[in-house]
Amino acid sequence: VPNALLINIGNFALAVLLAPLVEEILFRGFVLGRLATKWGYRTATIVSSVVFAALHPDFLGALLFAVVLCVIRARYVSILAPILVHVGNNLVVAALS
Known about the structure:
mainly alpha
């Protein structure tokens, strides 16, 4: 039983904390920033969101969520805001699962 508990805690931490942190740094930090410099923020939002969504099972849901995260990134001019929203989203999803 203790091993199963540790595995569940580890999976929870990965899904709720680590995955959003890594994805936001990668997609809203690096990819969005690089593409926005080349193509402008609107096109960068679309392209980075499609790539993000392609890596998730619910493509449409992930696509819409990614666009919202890009808007939040632009609005608050900080990577911290989309990280917190993404963590909150994953926390709710994990709690409902």
